[in-house]
Amino acid sequence: xxxxxxxxxxxxxxxxxxxxxxxxxxxxxxxxxxxxxxxxxxxxxxxxxxxxxxxxxxxxxxxxxxxxxxxxxxxxxxxxxxxxxxxxxxxxxxxxxxxxxxxxxxxxxxxxxxxxxxxxxxxxxxxxxxxx
Amino acid sequence: xxxxxxxxxxxxxxxxxxxxxxxxxxxxxxxxxxxxxxxxxxxxxxxxxxxxxxxxxxxxxxxxxxxxxxxxxxxxxxxxxxxxxxxxxxxxxxxxxxxxxxxxxxxxxxxxxxxxxxxxxxxxxxxxxxxx
Lengths: 132, 132
What we know:
The structure is a homodimer of 132-residue chains. Chain A has 132 residues and is of the alpha/beta class. Chain A has one domain: 2,3-Dihydroxybiphenyl 1,2-Dioxygenase, domain 1 (Roll), CATH 3.10.180.10. In chain A, strand 7 and strand 8 form a beta hairpin. Chain A is globular and about 45 Å long. Chain A starts with a strand and ends in a 6-residue tail after the last strand. At the A-B interface, strand 1, strand 4, strand 5, strand 6 and helix 3 of A face strand 1, strand 4, strand 5, strand 6 and helix 3 of B. Strand 1 of chain A pairs antiparallel with strand 6 of chain B.
């Protein structure tokens, strides 16, 4: 009896459709549900799901699932294949996305940080940054 | 060149240590860094990382990483091993955690929902709820 992994990771955006366009077009995530005014769902290659909700709607009572909804900049990090972070950096710049920070980590991992249209901090990571 | 999965999933809690105790003791996640006043990190069995930040600290400028920090109830779902959701339900009740909702999904998956000490909506899932 154990938790095996994170199944749904959630971000919030007042404009779900604008956020959905960013994750679908700029980051090339695979859309599997929506977008509508409430939410959008993306499926990652490892089976995990990224959900983006409009917090003004997801926080309303009486929905089929317990209410939730946060405001302010959230954060998510995605893993990219080894050896592709420089290509991602170039591709994101070509797509008009500002790289807020490029960061090498002490253990050899590397990250780049951008912002999604809602202001969430989005990190792409090559390698592993945290203790095993 | 592809994003392979979510590497870091982030929740927020004003009291990081109280949240850390919940995830470590009640959900039995494996602590790998902290907790301190800013943050705590847990490693999942599939290699993913769950981070919990105090948004009043993580949102300050001048940190080594771009600032972020959200307030209000967030949401996360964890996968549990098939056949263990009923045992989880019983165990959580024994540990004094109220089950806010038990929900069967149309495709055969099942979820239970609880709240962490910061009010985040925490879901445990058996099976798969989203389109592949």
